[in-house]
User: What shape does this take?
Amino acid sequence: MFTFFAPLAALAYFILYIVHIEAVQHLNETKWPSQNFTSVPEFHPPVLEITAPEQASKDGYLFFNPGGPAADQVAPLIMDSDGELVWNGPPGLFTFNFGVQQYRGEDVLVFWNGTRFPEPKGRGHGNVYIWNKHYEQIANISLPGNFLEFNGERYPSNIDLHEHYITGNGTILVLAYNITMADLRSVGGLAEGWVVEGQVYEIDIETNEVLFTWNSLEHLDKLPFTDSLYPLGSEGYDGKTQENAWGYFHHNAVTPFTDGYIISSRYFCSAIAISREGEVLWVLQGRDGGDFQLEGNASFCYQHDIRVLSSSLDANNSLASLTISMHDNANSPIDKNKIPTSGKIFDIDLASKTATQTHRYLNTSGLIYGTAQGSHQRMTNGNIFEGAGYVPVMEEFSPDGTPLCRWTFGTPIRTTEGGFLSPEPENVVLSYRAYKQTWVGCPRTTPDVVLTKMQA
Ligand SMILES: *[C@@H]1O[C@H](CO)[C@@H](O)[C@H](O)[C@H]1NC(C)=O
Ligand SMILES: *[C@@H]1O[C@H](CO)[C@@H](O)[C@H](O)[C@H]1NC(C)=O
Ligand SMILES: *[C@@H]1O[C@H](CO)[C@@H](O)[C@H](O)[C@H]1NC(C)=O
Ligand SMILES: *[C@@H]1O[C@H](CO)[C@@H](O)[C@H](O)[C@H]1NC(C)=O
Ligand SMILES: *[C@@H]1O[C@H](CO)[C@@H](O)[C@H](O)[C@H]1NC(C)=O
Ligand SMILES: *[C@@H]1O[C@H](CO)[C@@H](O)[C@H](O)[C@H]1NC(C)=O
Ligand SMILES: *[C@@H]1O[C@H](CO)[C@@H](O)[C@H](O)[C@H]1NC(C)=O
Ligand SMILES: *[C@@H]1O[C@H](CO)[C@@H](O)[C@H](O)[C@H]1NC(C)=O
Ligand SMILES: *[C@@H]1O[C@H](CO)[C@@H](O)[C@H](O)[C@H]1NC(C)=O
Assistant: This one.
């Protein structure tokens, strides 16, 4: 029974208001300030610290999924820009990538659940769930198969926690990780070493049939081990045993584009374009350019959430240029606190082979150094919404880059300059990605209501 406080009718709104008053009286400041509800005692969503709610756009709700060892309540959440709870998912459900997507022409809720291996492994084996506007499950997508993990365990479904992208064709793009053996002598390792392979799948949602498969180890000619910016041995991953398999590639997003798919590889610091046949077409590397010349101050590394915003064709109907966006962490566990994290937009010109950085989104008074996770969203109203992932902060910007509002949950590490650092893994409260999206829920459950006598 998932209770829903829908601000649909005036009566419902009045009840919500009463519940809110109850909540404010019951703040729990010991771990993270949380809201209690008399009507639903098992919900403890965070009280958000909000810098400038009046500057936040009125469009959309916040979709995020607090989790991590220091989270008071692990559950997917929908809140409005003022931090009022709209919907609290099942407490204890540590979802990834909770947000609204479109499937068969309708807005649906999408999230991942499964077995997680937190940072520094940072991967998982699970299923993708799609819920309709009635908060009813309409799909449970799986990837069974012969996958190996560091611990020798097998999982019924092996969809990784990073990416769940529904295409306009009724398919979903997902990632998977498999541990296997490879010759690591080119990077000073064993001839029979252990690596974590990056895989990409396109799955038909209706039938669960796999339509496309891509494996990183089949493309070592274009994507060699020597290109990894996470050297063999980093954080103890020396590739000498199955348990210490080297996560050299660590892909975290895949998105369709005119000629196939674009993969985001965190440790190649690259946007990798592959054809529908899986051939590597080009690589945009954020530090040396890869197949491109980086113009001016263009740079990125350890990025997340690469998306294609637009593309244009030449006279022969070939792709001429495209514009991509990303959350540029610029920080990793082995390279941090030098360059702040920001949202970025790049124009890629395929004829001149150049990449130009056109926009950067960050609050220069409150710099964030995010060593892992995060998201970048262009909202339907054109504003930009950044989720800081490993740092429990979400920000909205105007299209030109003006910071509008910041929402903080949990207890992030603050710098004396007004910014944020990433915590040690045991102190993390995170939301892998976060979105600000429009959504109309029509729950079939009756509201849980407690009427309290109030002083006049
Ligand atoms: C808030 O909820 C917690 C967990 O159920 C409970 O222990 C606590 O007493 C509640 N706080 C208040 C002030 O009611
Ligand atoms: C506050 O949260 C802490 C940590 O989760 C918990 O131990 C404590 O019982 C909570 N107190 C209240 C009053 O809710
Ligand atoms: C979420 O995944 C975990 C781990 O696989 C599983 O134990 C749990 O039952 C799942 N929860 C739901 C609601 O599917
Ligand atoms: C989803 O499918 C998996 C099999 O891949 C099954 O184990 C699990 O129970 C299903 N979960 C729900 C909530 O339907
Ligand atoms: C749908 O599939 C067709 C044929 O493979 C492809 O050309 C088109 O780009 C796909 N559309 C999306 C939105 O993925
Ligand atoms: C995973 O790797 C193992 C070898 O370690 C191999 O036997 C298996 O087929 C691979 N699975 C997939 C799905 O690639
Ligand atoms: C279009 O194709 C023709 C013939 O292959 C070629 O000569 C021309 O340069 C192409 N134009 C563009 C813009 O690539
Ligand atoms: C650096 O990037 C920003 C956008 O991120 C751009 O506005 C600015 O002109 C660039 N500066 C140079 C010197 O290229
Ligand atoms: C930018 O960061 C500063 C320092 O933390 C903060 O005071 C300010 O409110 C932030 N701006 C916005 C719009 O959130």
